[in-house]
Design goal:
The protein is mainly alpha-helical. The protein is built from eight helices and three strands, in the order αααααβββααα.
């Protein structure tokens, strides 16, 4: 078994004007493609090639030390980006509804407080990484950030929403203006998809 880059469910131009076509092509085809190529190379011929990517990310400590770093970086890149493409969509944005909205009110002090904290997590990540909305092991929502291509799954948390703050995600359009990119990201969030992930994670 080998992993592959999933097709987008929308066109490269569908997230304009917030994310430009060239960034989407390079990010999806080249960056994500490189993570997949390197992941497949790292696990080729091993039992881990048959593991689902979620299991690999969750159980990184079970991998041999000889391949763990390569799989952490490239498997994380594949898993994070596969999620990222589904977390955005055309004609999206707005605010969450239903049980996820209620949980944000309960655990994070409401949508505005969440937005502030999520943006702060993205801005505060030095260098490359991600900001996340997660469901923790106590079934409470939390906002956090991870370095590089690490994912909350490895720490037993379930990612509901994430934003890529590596420069390759935004530099062509926004240059060093990460704050502007994060503001635009809120206009792209597919809250219905996030709500489905929340309900599934709650079990």
């Amino acid at each position: 078994m080998s992993f592959s880059v999933p097709d987008l469910s929308y066109g490269y131009d569908a997230l304009e004007p917030f994310i430009d076509v060239e960034t989407m092509k390079i990010h999806h085809d080249k960056h994500h493609g490189a993570y997949v190529t390197n992941l497949n190379k790292a696990i080729e011929g091993s039992e881990f090639a048959a593991w689902p990517i979620e299991t690999i990310i969750k159980d990184l400590a079970k991998l041999p030390e000889s391949i763990r770093t390569a799989v952490r970086n490239n498997g994380g890149g594949h898993y994070n980006h596969s999620l990222f493409w589904t977390m955005m969509g055309p004609n999206a944005g707005g605010k969450p509804s239903g049980s996820l909205a209620s949980a944000i009110d309960r655990d994070l002090g409401g949508f505005e407080a969440f937005s502030t904290e999520f943006t702060k997590a993205g801005l505060g990540r030095f260098g490359s990484g991600w900001a996340w909305l997660v469901l923790d092991q106590g079934k409470k929502l939390a906002v956090l950030s991870t370095p590089n291509q690490d994912n909350p799954l490895t720490e037993g948390q379930k990612p509901l929403l994430g934003v890529d703050v590596w420069e390759h995600a935004y530099y062509l359009k926004y240059q060093n203006r990460r704050a502007d990119y994060l503001e635009s990201f809120f206009k792209l969030i597919d809250w219905k998809a996030a709500g489905r992930r929340f309900e599934a994670a709650m079990g």
